[in-house]
Amino acid sequence: MNYSKITTSALAVLMTFGLANQASAQKMMTKQKTVMVGGAAMYPTKNIIENAVNSKDHTTLVAAVKAAGLVETLSGKGPFTVFAPTNAAFEKLPAGTVESVLQPENKATLTSILTYHVIARKISSKDLAAWIAKGKGKYTAKTVQGEKLTFTASGKNIYVSDMKGNKAKVTIADVNQSNGVIHVIDTVLMP
């Protein structure tokens, strides 16, 4: 028996299978219109939590969501619009703020901050831009936390302001999820 022919044939089959799977994966990414966030593809067939845990730019947000006990909620049916602050956004907060709100005794405060970044419906950047234009330069929406966010635009950029006047720029818009949409922002909003 000639093992080299078997090995060569088996290798050819494996390589063909591997290339077919790679091509299939690339087609799937293209078909799903993935967006890269934090070095990872965000799949519209996955929910907000399933995608967020893969973004290296959102490890602080994911830790906060876990500490607040919101994983199950944000994995739910939705739809949700989440304005997702990056790690760099959390780093802009005063020293010790993140560590403090992650303590179990501050869970209510943390939950309030996180739910202030969520609207209980799916809103695209196109919707926001249209509503801003219709609203004479601004649009407000009520968050899950209960207070409002104000949206404005400058050129093609969309900004979100909290009730205290903090302003976040949407840096990556329309990251579609199976249960809503994420818009990445560069500043943590405070209720």
UniProtKB/TrEMBL annotation:
- Domain named FAS1 is located at 45-189
PROSITE patterns for this protein: FAS1 (PS50213)
Q: What is this protein called?
A: Uncaracterized surface protein containing fasciclin (FAS1) repeats
- Zinc among keywords: no
Q: Which InterPro entries match?
A: Adhesion/Biosynth-related, FAS1_dom_sf, FAS1_domain
Upper classification of the source organism reads:
Bacteria, Pseudomonadati, Bacteroidota, Flavobacteriia, Flavobacteriales
Query: Pfam family example for this protein?
Result: Fasciclin
Signal peptide (UniProt feature, chain positions): 1-25
